[in-house]
Amino acid sequence: MGAEFALHHGDVLNNAQLAYRLVGPAGAPVVAVMGGISSHRFVSACTPRGWWREIVAPGGGVDTQRFAVLGIDFLGGSGDSTSPGPGCAFPPVSPIDQAQALCRVLDHLELPALHAFVGASYGGMVALAFAQAHASRVRHIVVFSAADRPSPLSTAWRSVQRHVVREAIARGDGATGLRTARALAMCTYRSRAEFATRFSGPPTRAGGRFRFPVEEYLFARGDHYAQNYRPESFLALSESIDLHHAEPESITVPATLIAVREDQLVPLEDMRSLAARLGGPCHWVELSSLFGHDFFLKEGEVINPIIQQALLESLT
Fold first, then answer.
1. Active-site pick, 121, 154, 191, 289
2. Which one from 63, 148, 242, 263 is the annotated catalytic residue?
3. Catalytic: which of 154, 293, 294, 314?
4. Is the pLDDT reported for residue 94 higher than 60?
5. Is 223 a catalytic residue?
6. How far apart are CA 182 and CA 224, in angstroms?
7. For residue 316, what pLDDT band results from cuts at 50, 70 and 90?
8. According to DSSP H, which parts of the chain are helical?
């Protein structure tokens, strides 16, 4: 990306690098795809590492026989883009910076514009930032579970998670802090109804205390996350979520917005407000899912037709 990359909040990344991956038919329309903060440039079913294999696949919502797919490793994340080192702080990075980084990739690839940008969760925030700042470089955005700004209650949850991780890093045990933070985060990703269905059984007594059915699940997910993600990157991108701020009236790119009634992190009313204030055409989709905020990772049969319609309409 060049010797320096100026960040939105005034800091500068020196010798910044951005890892990307473009796959698909030569000359095909290009669709950028981004997900939550732990997602990466390996998106599609054409690689075992693809994090959205059910959606980005031959015949899928993002049909890899019809479209080329562009993914990036987020600045500050746990991939191969510029990120914090062990025990090191990272300058504040916003979704605006990720959008600007994507522009640098498009320039490098000599691509004037994207056919579409499909973003879910944090990736949806980046899609909104991209559409606001670079309207001429994308024909359509498809946004799952992201509003124009974070919910204060969601910021409260993430602030506690970051505090846990910072204290653990200060003790030299960032992985343990990340494990606990992820366990707490899992309580917010899924719906109350799913937890009631899966974990309503009685506790068992062992080792002088009771263990509740939900504990094993939460900390197993925390262990897995801590094995695959860096605590310092979690701090950088968790904060980035809470630095998100878009101006809906300034977004004129046609948009498809998909919201879930059971999403605890991105309240339905926040996305309704976004849809009502967008400056361009908007197709609104409201769903119900036991998986809450995680529905975009779990509900492929529902999601694929929505994306297919949005991308094919953009071709006309």
1. 121
2. 263
3. 293
4. yes
5. no
6. 9
7. low
8. 95-109, 122-133, 152-170, 174-189, 192-198, 213-228, 231-242, 268-277, 295-298, 300-313
Among candidate residues 240, 255, 270, the one where a domain is terminated? 240
Give the Cα separation of 263 and 289 in Å (integer).
8
Q: Give the position of tokens 């790119």.
A: 253
pLDDT digits (tens, 9 = 90+) for 158-190: 999 999 999 999 999 999 999 999 999 999 999
- The answer for residues whose C-beta is within 8 angstroms of residue 242's C-beta and 6 or more apart is 150, 155, 158, 159
Residues 44 and 167 in one domain: no
The CATH number of residue 228's host domain is 1.10.1740.110
* Residue 293 a catalytic site member: yes
The reported pTM is 0.96
Residue 221 · residue 183 · CB < 8 Å: yes
Q: Domain containing 174: what range?
A: 153-240
Q: What is the mean pLDDT of residues 221-250?
A: 97
Phi, psi (rounded to 5 degrees) for 167: -65, -40
121 is catalytic: yes
| pLDDT at residue 89 in the model | 87
- One-letter amino acid at 35 equals G
Using CA atoms in the order 78, 79, 80, 83, what is the torsion angle rounded to 10 degrees? Answer: -30
Residue whose pair of structure tokens reads 């975009």 in the numeric block: 296
